[in-house]
Design goal:
alpha/beta, Nucleotidyltransferase, domain 5, 2 domains, five-stranded mixed beta sheet, 42% helix, globular, binds 5'-O-[(R)-(carboxyoxy)(hydroxy)phosphoryl]adenosine, binds zinc ion
Length: 350
């Protein structure tokens, strides 16, 4: 059976054709270039972009899959969490296709879809039970996954999501949006000459929750302080003078190390607490090479098996929606034409 996956929860318009773990086509277009000058996603712009491109993306996905629309056996769509106006476009398209083709419809939780994106791989699939870490621009959470559709929330961020923290740090350093890739790139050039260290927040020894606002504020104070010093040194009249490249690189490195260490340590702690041998990561921040390196090292040290999605499935995409939709369908889940956009959809403990 072929599944048509549709994703429009934020600024990516995605349509994919999947069969189990096999991806026949995965097409994504993003309105990110339109949001850049605002330093973050503007919901109205994102919504309009989806309306403009959804049909084109659908046609391209079908064309790349080399399969006609009639071969689609199931329609899976993200129905939350996300921006309500953005979600509506994908849901409306999915309902129209489901109704027109006479095929079943399944609503998919975007956060859980990220968690299962590591299954879209040719290698061995992650084995249940596993500890799943979702790290994106809107979410940072740890789950214990017993089987598809049966999971328990173990901990989550108490303030900013880790991707959001990357975005904010990039903004205050004047590096642009989205922040993750630019902070990672700047950090790679760091030589550590400034010896910067930012505090890590653990929220208690056994806590599986996260907090990133403290690191973000520490970066803000450090940058302001350095700007004042530069200002005095250069006797400029400029407000917020630009920091040197080597200093920016060191700030990015120190921030990234502190943020990623908390993710890795808590993921390994969760695996130990629940006696699980497999850890799985998903979401935009899973594209970060340093996170992959650190978690792989943590996994070896703790005798765990770590699974990462391919980079193309880390950021928002519809292949992960198609995969999870099909799995949930096989477990009996069905949605109907009353399926609604749920901006604050939570992952149910089941
Ligand atoms: O999963 P995603 O595409 O959208 C949400 O569901 O939020 O994640 C986007 C987030 C952004 O905050 C972006 O800065 C971050 O993922 N991100 C990264 C990297 N690439 C994207 N963060 C760290 N390192 C990266 N290489
Ligand atoms: Zn996402």
């Amino acid at each position: 059976m072929l599944t048509l996956g549709i994703e429009t929860s934020c600024d990516e318009t995605g349509v994919a054709v999947t069969r189990g773990r096999h991806v026949l086509a995965n097409v994504v277009t993003s309105s990110v270039h339109l949001h850049k000058k605002y330093g973050g996603v503007v919901p109205e712009i994102a919504s309009r972009y989806h309306v403009e491109y959804i049909i084109e993306v659908l046609a391209e996905a079908l064309s790349r899959s080399k399969r006609p629309l009639e071969d689609i056996g199931l329609v899976a769509v993200t129905n939350g969490p996300g921006l309500v106006g953005a979600l509506l476009t994908g849901i409306s398209a999915a309902k129209a296709l489901s109704f027109g083709l006479g095929r079943p419809l399944v609503g998919v939780n975007h956060v859980l879809a990220h968690l299962y994106s590591a299954f879209l791989n040719e290698g061995p699939a992650p084995r249940f039970p596993f500890v799943g870490l979702v790290v994106s621009g809107g979410h940072t959470a740890l789950f214990l996954c017993e089987e598809v559709g049966r999971q328990r929330l173990l901990g989550q961020t108490q303030d900013d999501a880790v991707g959001e923290a990357f975005d904010k740090v990039a903004k205050l350093l004047g590096l642009g949006y989205p922040g993750g890739p630019v902070v990672e790139k700047a950090a790679m050039a760091s030589e550590g000459i400034h010896g910067i260290k930012f505090p890590k927040s653990y929220l208690g020894k056994d806590s599986l929750d996260f907090s990133f606002s403290g690191i973000k504020t520490a970066v803000l104070y450090y940058v302001r302080d350095r700007q004042r010093t530069e200002d005095r040194g250069q006797r400029t009249e400029k407000k917020n003078p630009k920091l040197g490249k080597d200093l920016v690189a060191d700030v990015c490195y120190a921030f990234q190390e502190a943020a990623l260490d908390a993710l890795v340590e808590k993921t390994c702690l969760a695996a130990a607490m629940y006696g699980v041998k497999t850890v799985v990561v998903g979401g935009g921040v899973a594209a970060n090479s340093r996170l992959r390196e650190k978690l792989s090292q943590g996994a070896v040290f703790n005798n765990l098996e770590a699974h990462f999605p391919k980079k193309e499935y880390c950021l928002d995409n519809a292949a992960m929606v198609g995969f999870l939709g099909e799995e949930l369908y096989k477990k009996g889940l069905r949605s109907d034409l009353y399926l609604s956009a749920e901006p604050n959809l939570e992952v149910c403990n089941a």
